[in-house]
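Retry 2 of 3 after timeout on previous attempt. Resubmitting structure tokens to design endpoint.
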């Protein structure tokens, strides 16, 4: 296999195709500390793209409850288990200050694949979910875990603040439009491709023959087979909106349906520039670049799989760290520590989440006066009445948000007074 560089695992790795990067990359960040699991994003996607016959169990966007939930059922546990069997005890991260998250010395899904199987050569380690595993996207929703690992079990001594002994969190997911997609690597028809202009991964359904190799290979299980047409389908990142073809935006790139419908304001989405050498172009005032490469609070989902996903998550602060490190890598501790008492710039950038349905390409912070000061988790925290401005690709203001939320005091006399 050719060798490519994966910056998320900090090293060269094996991949079936040679290095190729788009001019721009579609990227999104989810703040898991805010997700309500209201499923508004799920239904926005469903009613737009997967409402037809044969698509009944297709959920290109879903929100699952961790640690028990998953769509398809146990998708991540099965993939982790398959890799562990090929490399027992070897899936380790090594600290390296020169790399964003250190260096991953274990095997990726490409490196853990067997050279020969009963069906022939295997390029990617994966599995094909059963029909039953696709049927219940919300199984185990709101199911917590106790310290002893039993679901819904209350501890004998009860709960005590500030830390609960039981925990769960919501994980929204869609196609990560990976830099090294397993679906592309596995497709024998070369029906899947990554767009040069924005890095969005699409399936050419005229070439697809429904072999389901993409479904088997994808570590995140986001390509899905449609039995009525006998071809695979997947999230297309609402690319007409990203291209700016929605009449509402007059040519300006717009967020996808799942993003723009988010009630909890957990989502931020956009495009980042990619250099010819494959690295992200330094763009200090792009909110995505700042969150991922400067503040380093947004982390990839299972970076050890090796696909270099372009979906990033701000990890939930109440979840046990070992579980989060397995899911998001060793950058978890830094991310949570910074978010517990965010500095002035981070607090302002977090206000851009869902501030507009336009894609924000850059931001500027207008500094205000100090309004609040306290101590959080032993750290000094100061809040300022700053204003953050978000700009579209042409430099027009599309968002203007004050860090200090406005306060409205209801009058003493109103229509529903008692």
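Retry 2 succeeded. Sequence:
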């Amino acid at each position: 296999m050719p060798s490519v560089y994966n910056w998320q695992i900090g090293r060269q790795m094996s991949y079936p195709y040679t290095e190729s990067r788009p001019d721009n990359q579609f990227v999104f960040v989810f703040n898991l500390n805010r997700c309500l699991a209201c499923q508004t994003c799920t239904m926005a996607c469903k009613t737009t793209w997967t409402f037809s016959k044969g698509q009944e169990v297709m959920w290109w966007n879903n929100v699952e409850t961790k640690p028990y939930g998953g769509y398809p059922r146990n998708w991540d546990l099965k993939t982790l288990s398959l890799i562990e069997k090929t490399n027992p005890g070897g899936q380790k991260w090594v600290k390296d200050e020169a790399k964003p998250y250190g260096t991953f010395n274990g095997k990726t899904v490409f490196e853990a694949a067997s050279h020969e199987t009963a069906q022939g050569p295997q390029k990617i380690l994966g599995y094909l979910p059963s029909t039953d595993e696709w049927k219940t996207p919300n199984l185990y929703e709101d199911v917590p875990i106790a310290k002893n690992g039993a679901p819904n079990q209350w501890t004998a001594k009860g709960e005590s603040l500030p830390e609960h002994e039981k925990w769960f969190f919501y994980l929204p997911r869609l196609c990560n439009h990976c830099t090294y997609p397993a679906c592309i690597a596995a497709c024998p028809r070369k029906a899947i491709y990554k767009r040069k202009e924005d890095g969005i991964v699409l399936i050419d359904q005229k070439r697809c023959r429904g072999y389901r190799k993409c479904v088997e290979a994808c570590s995140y299980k986001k390509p899905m087979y449609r039995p009525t047409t006998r071809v695979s389908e997947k999230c297309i990142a609402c690319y007409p909106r990203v291209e700016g073809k929605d009449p509402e935006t007059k040519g300006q790139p717009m967020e996808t349906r799942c993003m723009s419908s988010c009630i909890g304001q957990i989502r931020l989405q956009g495009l980042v520039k990619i250099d010819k050498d494959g690295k992200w172009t330094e763009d200090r005032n792009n909110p995505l670049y700042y969150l991922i490469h400067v503040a380093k609070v947004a982390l990839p989902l299972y970076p050890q799989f090796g696909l270099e996903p372009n979906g990033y998550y701000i990890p939930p602060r109440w979840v046990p760290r070992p579980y989060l490190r397995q899911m998001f890598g060793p950058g978890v501790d830094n991310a949570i520590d910074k978010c517990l008492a965010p500095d002035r710039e981070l607090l302002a950038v977090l206000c851009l989440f869902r501030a507009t349905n336009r894609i924000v390409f850059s931001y500027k912070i207008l500094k205000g006066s100090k309004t609040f000061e306290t101590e959080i988790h032993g750290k000094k925290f100061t809040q300022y009445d700053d204003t953050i401005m978000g700009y579209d690709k042409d430099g027009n203001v599309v968002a203007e948000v004050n860090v200090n939320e406005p306060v409205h005091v209801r009058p003493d006399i109103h229509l529903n007074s008692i």
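Attempt log closed. The longest helix spans residues 75-86.
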